[in-house]
Amino acid sequence: MSTQHETASDGNVLTENTFTFLQAAGASGEFLEFLRHDNESSIRRSVQSDLRHGALSGDPTEYAPLGGHFFDNLWEGDLFGAWRRADPANRRIMRDVFGESTVIAAAVTGGLNRETAAQFVSN
Predict the structure, then answer these.
(1) Do the Cβ atoms of 35 and 19 come closer than 8 Å?
(2) Tens digits of residue pLDDT in 79-120
(3) Residue ranges with strand state E in the chain
(4) Helix/strand/coil for 42
(5) Which are the contacts of 64, defined by CB distance < 8 A and separation ≥ 6?
(6) Which of 8, 19, 34, 92 lies most in the core, judged by the most C-beta atoms within 10 Å?
């Protein structure tokens, strides 16, 4: 079985093959869920750019995603870390996709006090 995944030729279309490639490359379920949800996110634009430039072809284990702190935290599945680094547009998407309670729970799992986490996420 090949480790290569085909991707769409149109760099703006993310297909199931794209998501399969990203998952094989190590993207968290949270990253993939976020990516599926919104067509205007900075995450989607970054992945579309990688797709257009051929970075999402070949062996997924060799894919080295280039993103900022928000991208990296979401890639790893660190919802609270991503929240802390998200701009207002990405926070809106995170609220829509995960809900504030899920982000708060992630912060508590990471060791933050629930009240502090709730206050931080609600502001």
Answers:
(1) yes
(2) 999 999 999 999 999 999 999 999 999 999 999 999 999 998
(3) none
(4) helix
(5) none
(6) 34
Instruction: Pull the structure tokens for residue 115.
Output: 């009240």
Q: Could you tell me which of 51, 31, 53 has the C-alpha nearest to residue 43? A: 31
The torsion region of residue 111 among left (phi > 0), alpha (psi -120 to 50) and beta comes to: left
This prediction has a pTM of 0.86
Amino acid, single-letter form, for residue 116:
T
Question: What residue has token string 């990253």?
Answer: 31
Question: What's the rounded Cα separation, in Å, for the pair 53 and 35?
Answer: 18
Tokens 């205007």, located at residue: 40
Element (H, E) at 3: none
pLDDT tens figures, 7-44:
444 557 899 999 999 999 999 999 999 999 877 888 99
